[in-house]
Structures are given as C-alpha cells and as structure tokens.
Amino acid sequence: MESVNMNKVQPPDQQSPAPPSLPSMTTPTPTSLSTSTSTSTATTTTTASTTTEASTATSTSANSDNTNTSTSTSTSTDKTNTDISNTDYNPQKALNMPASFDPSIVQRLTPTKNLLAISSHVVHGNVGNDAIQFPLNLRHWNVDCIYTTNLSNHPGYRQFKGTKADADLVSILYTGLNDLNLHYDAAIVGYTASKENTAAVYQILKTFHDSGRRTVTVLDPILGDNGKMYVNSDLIPVYKDILRDGLVNLVTPNQFEIETLTDMKILTADDLKLAVNKFYQLYNVKNVVVTSVQLENNPDIYCVGSAGDGAIFYFKMEQIDAVFSGSGDFFLGLLTDCFVKYNGDLVKSLKETITIVTKVLQLTYDLCTDCTNTDQKRYIGDKLYLPDLKLIESKEILLDQHMLEANELVPVFI
C-alpha cells in the first residue's frame, strides 16, 4: 500500500513554504440578529386539533355533570405529569406524544459530550476546526468552535482572502462561554496563528486548570514541518510556558516540532528516545504523540507515543503517494475522541485513530484520482496535492465499529 502522510501541509507551489502573512482582524462591533422559525405539518395540525376538540368536549361534559369531578381529575393529572415515579405515568400522554411514540428511544440514545475546539477556520475546505467538528459530531460530541483565522480557503490553493483573528476577540468569545458556566469534557488547541492568540489560549487553558473541572486538554503545538518554521518564532516561548505549567493532558508535535521544543535533532531511533525523554524532563505533560517521524536512511514513516511511564512505542504508517491538507487537524480531533473514549489508554487511542485516518485519506485519494478533470489536479513536486478531505463521503468509515474491532495494527515498543 502507499503511505499516509500526516504532515502539516504547506502550499503546493513549494515543498515546505511558509504560508502568506495574515493581517490582524479587529474585534467586530456586535450586531443584533433576530431569527424566527416555525414548522408545521398537516398531519400534526390535524392530530392536535382533533385532540384539543376531544379534550374540550370531555371537559365540557364533566363540568356539566359534576364540577367536583372535573376539579379532582385536573389535580390528579397535574400530579401525574410532574411525578414520573408514579407507576401510572404515561410518557405519551405527559409529553403530548402520539400513540406511536416509543419512549425507549430516549433510553437508547448515546450520551453526548462537550468539546471546545480552538483552531483555524476556512469557508471552503476541511482544515482546522472544519476538519474536527463534523467527525466529532458524528461520534457524539457537541463541538463549540473558536476561530483563530477566518479565511476563504486553505492557502494551499495558492490564493485566499481573509484574516487571522485578533487575540482580544479570542479572549472575549471564551469569556462569553465561561459566563454561561459551561463545562467542557475536552478541549483541542490547533493552529493559533500568532503569539498573541497563543497567549490568549494560555489563559483559557489556565482557566480550565484552575476551575478544578476535569477537562481533557489536547494541544498540537503547530510550528512547522520538514525542517522549516511556518509561524513566527515568538510562539515558541508561549508554547513552552503552556507545556511547563501542566495545562495539557496530551501533546502532538510532529518530528520537527519536538526537535524545536527540545533543541535536539532526530536522525536515529536512539535520537528519538533521547528527545522524548528530554521532553519529559523539560515539560509537565504525561502523554506525548510524535507524528510523521522519518529517520535517516529509512523510507518508513512512524507515529510514536509515550504515556510517561518510560515506555516508548510506535506504529508504522501506511503511505499514500499524495499530500493532504487538514489531515493533521482530522488526526487531532479523532485522537482526542479516542483518548477520552479509552480513558487515556494511548495505545488503544492511537490504534483506532490511525486506522480511521488512513482509510479516510485512502478514500479521499481514490475519489480524487478517479476524477477525469486533470486540469483541477494540483501537485507538490511529483506528489498529488489534495486540499480537501472527503469527510462527508467518509461517514460510514467514521461510524464503522466492526472495522475497528478487526483492526490488526500492532504497536512496537522500543
């Protein structure tokens, strides 16, 4: 099979170029929005009308025959509607549901969790929060998003419009959420775009930490890839502060980023182990996943994990001969879901995440290579560049539990 490239993708005109500089977006003046919606169907209206008329007729008859009986019946009904422990409680009647309503449906619903995602946004495409929200919605997460950019599309298209968010806006939006006393089961931090935004994120994570609430926090310290920075270097000290202060449960640097954060070059497996161990010496984070690791004189790509217990393991990645935008963000969202699902079991979490991401990237590749319009195809060097993951088309993959149970990925401990 060909290889899955989880690298954070650069624009297609260069192998590892820096994205265009994004101008700041000032905080907008709030405007009042008024929305009115209403829906009805002939069936519902007819049923409701019939029920109301029947109820009115019954009530009139009761009042004509015996006023005391009417009062007693009304009191008894009110008590039954509010006391669900009453053995005669009937949810269809209490909730005005049709007789065909099955109350066990509610009991069979999968419980949902709440997540805050702080990352970039594009109007067109599936990168940043747009690669996180839909897959996690399918997997029973309510996802609230704070955008660090607002762009027309990914810069990999070679042209885009839009801006990065102003840090004050990022802070104000979170303050508004915090004022609602919301609790998030998990939080994801992806592309922050600027030092100021990263500092605002630091304060948000500190609020989570200081609140005493259990919010699983996952950080992708996006700095660059393939040996090159594609954000300003002034973000590095802020990321280091976040990592030192124990505000994160899981961090997902790629090879270049862990090299930057540890000041170590990784060429061999021994270098990799030394870098991971040094990371633990420098920072207060228990779980580390290093993506897109490629060692010297070795064509294979690895995903490496450690749960802070001294053990380091890896999965060998299948490779697809293409470059994808949004694969890292998609990976980040799914890993967070699995990490919560498996109560912090990093081996199980990575195994499931890699399996799903690989299949989604393969489907995206298959659909795009089948496209007959070669004029729409883009390349980075000799590799096909695919700026948009096919997430909607991948719905069945995202929900296929049988595929996951048959997963044969095996971790190798080093």
UniProtKB/TrEMBL annotation:
GO MF, one annotated term: pyridoxal kinase activity
Pfam families xref list: Phos_pyr_kin
Residues passing through the membrane, by range: none
Biased composition range(s): Low complexity: 23-88
Matching SUPFAM superfamilies: Ribokinase-like
EC number, UniProt record: 2.7.1.35
InterPro entries tied to this protein: PM/HMP-P_kinase-1, PyrdxlKinase, Ribokinase-like
The organism's place on the tree of life at top rank: Eukaryota
Region Disordered, annotated ranges: 1-95
GO CC list: cytosol
Presence of keyword ATP-binding: yes
Name of this protein: pyridoxal kinase
GO biological process: pyridoxal 5'-phosphate salvage
Residue ranges of every copy of the Pyridoxamine kinase/Phosphomethylpyrimidine kinase domain listed in the record: 183-362
Enzyme class, UniProt record, top EC level: transferase
Alphabetical keyword list: ATP-binding, Kinase, Nucleotide-binding, Transferase
Entry annotated with the keyword Zinc-finger: no
Family the UniProt entry places it in: Belongs to the pyridoxine kinase family.
